[in-house]
Amino acid sequence: MKRVLLAALAALAPALAAAQALPETIRARGYLRVGIEATYPPMAYKDPATNERRGVNVDLVTAIGKELGIELRWEEMSFAQLIPSITTDRVDFSGSSMVDLPARRERLSFVDYVSTGAQVFTTTAQRRGANEPADFCGRSVATPRTTNYFPQAQAWSEANCVAKGRPPMRVIGTEGAAAARTDLQQGRADGAILGAEYVVYLSQQNPGAFVAIGEPISRNFSGMAFDRGKQEVRDAIAGALSRLIANGTYAEILRRHGLERQALTAISIDAGE
Description:
The model is unreliable at 1-14 (pLDDT under 50). The chain is 36% helix and 26% strand. It has helices spanning 2-17, 24-29, 56-68, 79-87, 149-160, 177-185, 196-205, 231-246, 249-256; strands spanning 31-36, 39-40, 44-46, 53-54, 71-76, 93-94, 98-99, 108-116, 118-123, 140-144, 170-174, 191-195, 210-212, 220-227, 263-269.
């Protein structure tokens, strides 16, 4: 199924790469309003030394602005504020990573630009022989309750622990990625579940301290989110991203942040499962 989907995305690439104009109202305004939640490295976060925004999303959206020849104005907010801000026209789109889920597409439309998945990980000291997610049946994991990782972890536990006669994985809901990591490091949880990209970042920043446990328990796409009524804006962004893939800018940005394995060969619209 996934192979068929990737072939379909590749077929869409030429159409998306064609120049798509931003709406005249935005051109007249002179800038795009971009919602950003800057607490999720390596996608978007604050550099602790300078307090400047960094990350894959920041670099990609900046490149999109240059490609479209328009100023960007960032609006920082919590993850929970992103969807209301999009649907009430406070921002033109979300520059933060948001998993493209069918349930979210009742109000939103997504430009999918990177693969993602819910990755179980722990500290080296707390690993205790765990080599695959099933080794966390009967153990606790922390994950943000405001993301899809929380219900995914619960569903995975039911299917892979409880249904097989093993004790459930105890899923602890936290206020965000930083809180999940803190719960893990302070021993309040045996493991954590965050995006595969975040686990890559933690391993880069703390060599030898963290270990990913097996493959992600889910696979999907992350996208930039738009109000469903703003297809012109969405298509202009999708076209710009497609051109950034074609000229190598996209690959260089993901390589810079260590996410080459999560790169897509083509941009897609609302392709999440």
